[in-house]
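ABC transporter ATP-binding protein: structure tokens wanted.
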Amino acid sequence: MITAEAVGWRVGGAQILEDISLTVGAGELLGIIGPNGAGKSSFVNILSGVTRPSSGRIVLQGREVTRASATRRARMGLSRSFQTSALFDGLSAGENVRLAVQAAGGAVLSPFRGAGSAATEVIDSLLTRVRMPGRARTLARDLSHGDRRKLELAMALASDPAVLLLDEPMAGVSAEDVDGLTEIIGEVRDSGVAVAMVEHHMHVVLGLADRVAVLHHGQLLAVGAPTDVTGDERVQQAYLGEAL
Ligand SMILES: Nc1ncnc2c1ncn2[C@@H]1O[C@H](COP(=O)(O)OP(=O)(O)OP(=O)(O)O)[C@@H](O)[C@H]1O
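Answer:
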């Protein structure tokens, strides 16, 4: 579904990423881990089109998109969530989802119902998919941190993506919400979406991912099944002092 071929990124004389080749297939979840500053977010930015790589290629659904904009990639079936919240706090959960559905369809944006606006059923089904049925009228600012994360996921799913990139979808949420989000993301993968997920909650990544890629100092240190990766000596060295 999405492939990075020998991707490198240099900025201001620093080699941030070097020779990264990774692929994520339909219905597969690739966990991307690595110590702080390893290059995980930079890599996701390159996959999504926020950043152009200095070398290498990105192929999305069989078509090269290395120089395609983020908007074009979104139209080709790629969706992503960001490390920081992208919600409109003064709008309700349903209105936030409505905007995402409209944006996905290339419609004029309006959080309010009107001609050509996203159907309430579509919004409700997205909120149900992230286990927030009946929360459409709650203001985003009144949602718990975990529910905000779920709402962001609903918005990322509004375009019915083939590829979903998640950058720390569980950052700062409670243990209970981590479990809920884990289940939801697992269901998204099981529905056939190719998911690449950067996440610091190691037990989540190791429990959920089909394969895990470890970045370290901008290089791909290891990639494979979770148990193979955690048993890799170089990976253990990279995480020295941290629990794996
Ligand atoms: N636009 C930029 N210009 C210069 N350096 C950058 C830029 N973006 C990222 N970097 C540097 O690239 C390195 C990798 O950053 P990146 O945010 O991708 O790491 P990360 O693995 O996502 O880290 P974290 O786990 O802390 O989020 C860091 O040293 C960072 O300072």
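The beta strands are 2-11, 14-24, 29-33, 55-60, 63-64, 78-81, 163-167, 194-198, 211-216, 219-224. Residues 11-12, 16, 34, 36-42 surround adenosine-5'-triphosphate (CB under 6 Å).

Cheers.
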